[in-house]
Design goal:
Layout (H helix, E strand, L loop, with lengths): L3 H5 L2 E6 L2 E6 L6 H7 L7 E11 L5 H14 L4 E4 L14 E8 L2 H13 L3 E3 L9 E5 L18 E9 L23 H12 L2 E3 L18
Parallel strand pairs: 6-9
Antiparallel strand pairs: 1-2, 3-5, 3-8, 4-5, 7-8
């Protein structure tokens, strides 16, 4: 057997001591290179949900107007949040409605997120990102998002919080049957979300966010 014409073809057969070997003659990549270029599509980062929150701190007309702002932004019916306990210094009682929020998913969530990042000029602090891969930021005025100003409503600020996930494999921790934990290699990290934000929105990450520290050191007065 002459193997020269067989080796020049795409596939060839080789007979050695009664055994038949079948191989390819066009494999030019090394095994190590193939492993480096291989990417698991189930590890692709996606925006799982976006939570928009406005905390008024009191119930009544102001809270109702804040709910109208969120409904205009998301097109969904918002949900009211109640106080967990009574705080007399803030004049709030337990189980009193003090905030309103809404959860958005899918393409609508990406649209609202991009509008919010446009207000921030696509710049976020590194401290905005948590160790579990989620991030959040705040908007001072809702009219910056493109909503029309209404004198009867006023101007409200709001909080954006983004919960990140992967394309697949995260449901094992949420399902009822065969409940399990997400493996450590599949969990989200802060660095992955930072890289996703920079590639997806061409965002800028700033470091050294100033911390607001209280200068209150107790009431000054003479001891009796």
């Amino acid at each position: 057997w002459r193997l020269e014409p067989l080796l020049s073809s795409t596939y060839f057969l080789c007979f050695v001591r009664g055994f038949i070997f079948f191989g390819s003659g066009t494999n030019s990549t090394m095994p190590g290179e193939e492993e480096q270029t291989r990417v698991n599509p189930m590890k692709e980062l996606v925006l799982k949900k976006l939570c928009v929150n406005i905390c008024v701190g009191e119930s009544g007309d102001r809270l109702t107007r804040a709910a109208k702002v969120i409904e205009q932004l998301t097109g969904q019916t918002p949900v009211f949040s109640k106080a967990r306990y009574t705080v007399r210094s803030f004049s709030i009682r337990r189980n009193e409605k003090i905030a309103v929020h809404c959860t958005v998913r899918g393409e609508k969530a990406m649209e609202i997120l991009e509008r919010g990042l446009k207000v921030k000029e696509y710049e976020l602090w590194r401290e905005n990102f948590s160790d579990t891969g989620n991030f959040g930021f705040g908007i001072d005025e809702h009219i910056d998002l493109g909503l029309k100003y209404d004198p009867s409503i006023g101007i409200y600020g709001m909080d954006f919080f983004c919960v990140m996930g992967r394309r697949g494999g995260m449901r094992v921790a949420e399902r009822k049957r065969h409940h399990s934990r997400v493996g450590f290699p599949h969990r989200l990290t802060k660095e992955e979300t930072l890289k996703w934000f920079q590639q997806k929105f061409e965002g800028v990450i700033n470091t050294g966010k100033p911390k607001n520290r209280s200068t209150f050191r107790g009431k000054k007065g003479k001891k009796k």
